Amino acid sequence: MRTSQFPLNTVKETPSDAELASHKLMIRAGLIRKLAAGLYNWLPLGLKVMRKVEAVVREEMERAGALEVMMPVVQPSELWEESGRWEQYGPELARLNDRHGRAFCLGPTHEEIITDLARNEIKSYKQLPVTYYQIQTKFRDEIRPRFGIMRSREFIMKDAYSFHLNDASLQETYDRMFEAYTRIFSRLGLNFRPVLADSGSIGGNLSHEFHVLADSGEDAIAFSTESDYAANVELAEVIGTSAERATPSAEMEKISTPDQRTIGEVSQFLSVAPANCLKTLIVKAEEEGFVALLLPGDRELNEIKAEKLEGVASPLEMASDEEIKQIGSVSGFIGPLGLNIPVVADHAVLTMSDFVIGANEAGFHHKNVNWERDLPLPKTVTDLRTAQEGDPSPDGKGTITIARGIEVGHIFQLGTKYSSAMKANVLNEAGKGQTMTMGCYGIGISRVVAAAIEQSHDERGIIWSDELAPFKVALCPMNMHKSDRLRETCEKLYNELSEAGIDVLFDDRKVRAGFMFSDMELIGIPHRLVLGDRGLDSGNIEYKGRGDSENQEIPMAEIISFLKEKLQ
RNA sequence: CGGGGUGUAGCGCAGCCUGGUAGCGCAACUGCUUUGGGAGCAGUGGGUCGGGGGUUCGAAUCCCUCCUCCCCGACCA
Description:
This protein is α+β, with helices and mostly antiparallel strands. It folds into three domains: 21-237 and 402-454, 2-Layer Sandwich (BirA Bifunctional Protein, domain 2); 253-382, YbaK protein; 473-567, Rossmann fold. The mean pLDDT is 91. It binds one RNA strand through residues 10-17, 19, 34, 36-37, 90-92, 108-109, 138, 140, 142-144, 146, 151, 157, 159, 200-202, 218, 315, 407, 410, 412, 440, 442, 444, 476, 478-479, 482, 511-519, 521-522, 530, 532, 534, 542.
């Protein structure tokens, strides 16, 4: 390709509304342009990169035995009503009516559609297991789209769905997909990790997310320092210690703590470590009423863990100041003593002694409180904390360290959540109807492009891996318009490279050297060849890799084999 | 949805407070010069000042209203 026929829509100035490096660079390098909030046009250069991602994903899906299908973006409400998600899904589901007044939605995902397809097409256990996949546009009406393509409303996703007669077969496909995902992200040249994940609103049991590691990532991931344990902090278990509780050293005392409401204020006011203050949170119960959650003062509640508790409302809802009054307490001075609602404690509170609690009375706390003497031990004790740096790893090996990641893939064992709701049955060997069990496997194709940039760029621009690069080689002539000899040499080299199957971008614009170099670096072409009259005399071509600091002189005759070697 | 901001040429912004018919930089186009790291000079084109309504002799500027986009928060395959 020639730049005279493939305009590079690069811009020098950084857009004012972009925060993330990937967002800025995607706009500056001319990969995307914003159309409206969370909606982007993909320019030729950007689309070329996205197609590279798709190609790798397609190859690996085929290798794993998945079959490509394509399902509509616009989906009838009936199927969503059947699964129950027409009600469950909030305003993130974009709904619309057709001219006859029939209700539809823009698909944020395709479980309902594929389950409907499968129940119509698959009748016998002999047709199982089967995995379908598609690469399709999704729409989610995000509350706050941001970070460019990273969290947009419309995006491209590869989603796959597998159907099985039993869990063993599901596990087999799940493992194969896990392996396929590992191959895909490795081939794309990404630094990534699979992590244990929450299966979220999509439902199901076992689930892994694939994260590209980057400081700007929206998710926090807990890693073990010693083993390969990795989990989303949303999910990461915090195990109880076997530490003994110290014996009480002082009598319980009610003390005046005027206007000291937060753990920080109280601990400072009383000169007590936050870890020795008991945090009492009131949340709404599943049906009527409220539940009190107890945590050490220096730890944060993990809301995902809390809303999974039996008897606690999901999604989690904190009690209002008004509601706290109704249960006989005061916001800022809540404590378990005399509180007449169910109590759930994090196991870490059991080892606390001589601690501080709210007195359920404005301006007062109790100090030197002790279990069993002043307070009964809570009946329900579980894991409520958010994992933090230094916690012991749940597998017993090493401690937890926290890193940030961008979620680019997610695989789930759905089980029969959709197949039973939508009656997706097949006949088994005994000739009896049996509900199929399902898995689902997603990759955010467009997000991968942003994640790759986030992970690999410098102050000059993008640094593509060979696999993702829109062009592998940039051919940069110096002042070609002044030298016919140079033009002939470049044209010849361009043809040779093309014939050798090397995707080359020939910069035949009449622009100055610096301009050309900055453009090629901004758009991240991994290999650059510079030809000038000077080099022609010596018979050498100047080569520089995008990440290299020095040029290399390569004899003209060897340049093709040299590049083939580089590109393998 | 709550809070804060914003909207003026393709992009980035000034002008608004104190009303008088729109400007700067970049980009684009033309010409000349320049030519190994985002060139210089000269010239050209391009704007319903987010929309609607009002006040006024006169509104980008003041008032009302609707909308957009951005930031913070709640949400999240």
